[in-house]
Amino acid sequence: xxxxxxxxxxxxxxxxxxxxxxxxxxxxxxxxxxxxxxxxxxxxxxxxxxxxxxxxxxxxxxxxxxxxxxxxxxxxxxxxxxxxxxxxxxxxxxxxxxxxxxxxxxxxxxxxxxxxxxxxxxxxxxxxxxxxxxxxxxxxxxxxxxxxxxxxxxxxxxxxxxxxxxxxxxxxxxxxxxxxxxxxxxxxxxxxxxxxxxxxxxxxxxxxxxxxxxxxxxxxxxxxxxxxxxxxxxxxxxxxxxxxxxxxxxxxxxxxxxxxxxxxxxxxxxxxxxxxxxxxxxxxxxxxxxxxxxxxxxxxxxxxxxxxxxxxxxxxxxxxxxxxxxxx
Length: 328
Prior knowledge:
With 328 residues, this protein is an alpha/beta fold. Helices cover 49% and strands 14% of the residues.
């Protein structure tokens, strides 16, 4: 199985918004255990097959033109340096390419002011989107039909992802790598490319049409309660009693609404709390385990190995190197 990834190029592109996703995707492919049966076909696309100069002083040579007969699976629309209007004016064929590829089923990822091209194509009309904070006011003026969410670094509307920054682009790429190559590959890429500890993709994005990902108000209340009580010793029987339902009803409705069990959701909350404490405090692993609601260090270690493929101590060592590394 070959997945076609295309990067749309034009003058004034930010080179990092081209190279970063390519390198992350290739790292994800290299981490996948069955590379022979799932491959990436990554190519650059532009109006003409001519060198595209960028602000960094380097240039990219497109392999394809926007007029070619090529059904992409994913298209990445890089950020634009400074004012995007001249780029838009000179790249109407690229806008037509985005429309056609969207209609043929492509998933599109726009970065910063590159999202203006998606807006020009009409793909963001009446949908949520974000852009670079510096251009948000002008974006809203130019594209009043777009439901701009500048307070979010990531928005997702069906098959369109908008990133406000390079960091949020990296988070989207980790999410997509998990879809393409699995969770283990995505975690490996995240460990090697992320230089700071951020919340998971699902917690950062504005997902169009979502009400805590589902419409069951009682389960949404239970999720909120679990987030705020994750550090306490809890049983699902106790949680069910708190909300006046049976444990069986809680289990059935929670799984139907969220796609996961209440126990797994609680464990995820505790794991995220433990990760933050390991990164930002000097508590012992035993103290961290107790602080997030586990009875002992051994159980926390078991969860870390199963979910993150490393021990709490190894995780602390890794993130401390990333967070506090200084140049000698």
